[in-house]
Every structure is written in C-alpha cells, then in structure tokens.
C-alpha cells in the first residue's frame, strides 16, 4: 500500500502532520540520500549525520516544494547543500566541492586504497571503490547522472551549475574514473 | 573547406548519454555506420553504462530511519514548547481584556437582579398564549442574558485568536 502512494501524496499527508507519511518518505529515500551524502562527505559517520540533517530540512522546507521540479531533484539539492555546509563547518576554507586547492578528502573510509590487497572479484564492488576514490564533486556527478538517472538539466539545478559547466564536469569525472579503473583495477576493467 | 570529423571515445560516451547536439549526433551515427570498431566500442560503453546504472546503493546503519524520526519528533516538540513558552503574553492580554469586560457585566447582572418588577396593571388582561418567539424576545431583552452572550462571544473570539497565534508561531518555528 505504502509503495503505491506517490511522493506528492506523502508530502501532502506529512504536511498535515501525519507522522507515518514522513516515515514512509524517509524509508523510501534513506538509501539514496545516504549514498549521495557519502559520495560528498566521504565518511560513513558524517554521511549518517548529513543524511539525518537532510531529512529534517526536507520536512522543514516541505511546504516550499511547489512541484516545479521532480521531488528527487529537490531532495538531492538539499543533500548537496547540506553536505557542502557540513564540509565548510569542518573546513571553512572550502568554497565548493570542486575546490582544487582544498580537496575534500577529510576521511577516506569510503575510499580505501585499491592496493591494500582486498579481494575484489566483483566488478560492481571495484566500480564502487573506484567511484569513491574520485573527488567529491566527480563522484557526486557520476552518482547523480548514472545511478540516480538525473538529467544534466536536473544536475544543474542540484549543484548550481551552468549547462556547459555540468557537461564539462561530467566528461572530466568520467575520464578520471576511467583513469582510476585503468590504473588501479586493471584486472577487473580491462576495457572500460 | 570540408569539415573533418574526428570521432573520440568521449564523443561516443556523450552519444550514449544523449548529450550531443543534433548535428554531432548525426555525424556520430554516420561514423558508426561505416566503422564496425566504433560499433563494438559503443556496445562496450552501453554495457559499462548499464553497470553504473545497476550499482547497489549504500545502506545506512541499522535503525537510521528510527533515529531520523526521533530527531524529527524532538525538533517538533521543541518548536511546540518554544511556541507555548511565549503564551503567557497572550494569556495576560486575554486576562486584562476579560477583566475589563467581565467587571461591567457583573455590575450589570447585579443591577438587573435588583430591579423590582413593575406594579401589576389594574385591569386584568387575558393571558397571552405562550408563543416561543415572544419568549425568546423577552429573554434576549434581559440585560443579563445579553451580557452573558457578549461575554461568551468574547471568550470564543479570544480562544480563536489564541489558537491562530499559536499555529502561526509553530509554523514559523518549523520553517513553513
């Protein structure tokens, strides 16, 4: 039954104070929000904090959601800005996730060194590791475009980018992913 | 001068991702028709894209949703408590207002009860039939009833005002 309710219906119900509707939205999107937060902040502990904060902000600003864009686009925009705020709190010098002078690899739990000798036979696991080794900005855009199937236009809204900038970033992220796969996961990805 | 088109891997990725302009898309398609190697490369890219699409999502720790709900409930309660904390101002205004309305009403009630009935007429008129409308009219003309009604309306009005202000404060706290 819960699965058949649309996001819009759940939002309306949550706005009238129905706690179960809010709980359903949290359950429906917890993995998406957590995964994206993890891509940006790079630590599971911080990602839990950010993801929780995202849901609280989602509820706080829910009444402002006018349906001009997809609910997911609006939600991922919250994840992006919350992650950025979280990183800025830790390092006030960070201006954006793409700040080359201040790389955002605060903790590298999510991006262990591929040469650690871990047995990675699964291509999925290797690909995930490779994505987590990218910069926050690169892994974020790859996740949004390929995993979450957000269009480039929607990514522009989420990450406050121009269309040409988003296109360049996606292309650059793809190239960097290829480089990591070619150099660190040669056996798993011979032809990526 | 004829424009030479140079096919690259990135261009093929952009083609697969649907990011090319109509002109570039047409050029890539024409190149693909002539070159089986690029066709093979496109198939690989599509397979790789499929792998990216089907990557499993990260799972948050156990009880994450419950923690979010607890935090939400706590925030909700906090906002409510904060809103209720300021209610003393409203209550004080209501008290002062009621006091100034109540006092004249009490005075009017006491005065109305002390009024002696008018002397009975000398001629005995036949008693009027008990018409409900006439009954109500007589009752409403009593100042005690009029002021009681007024008092009741003032209470209801203040209660509505109080609820409305509470709602507005709560909405403001929750960022609606």
How would you describe this structure to a colleague?
The complex is a heterodimer of chains A (192) and B (176). Chain A is mostly helical. Chain A has one domain: RNA polymerase sigma factor, region 2, helix turn helix motif (Rna Polymerase Sigma Factor, Chain: A), CATH 1.10.1740. Chain A contains 8 helices and no strands. Chain A is globular and about 55 Å long. In chain A, 41% of the residues are buried. With 176 residues, chain B is an all-alpha fold. Chain B has 2 domains: 45 residues, no CATH class; 81 residues, no CATH class. Chain B is elongated, with a radius of gyration of 41 Å. Chain B starts with 8 loop residues before the first helix and ends with a helix. The relative contact order of chain B is 0.07. Chains A and B meet through helix 2, helix 3, helix 5, helix 6 and helix 8 of A and helix 1, helix 3 and helix 4 of B.
Provide the descriptors you would attach to this structure in a database record.
heterodimer; A: 192 residues; mainly alpha; Rna Polymerase Sigma Factor, Chain: A; 8 helices; B: mainly alpha
Please provide a brief summary of the model:
The complex is a heterodimer of chains A (about 190) and B (about 180). Chain A is mostly helical and about 190 residues long.
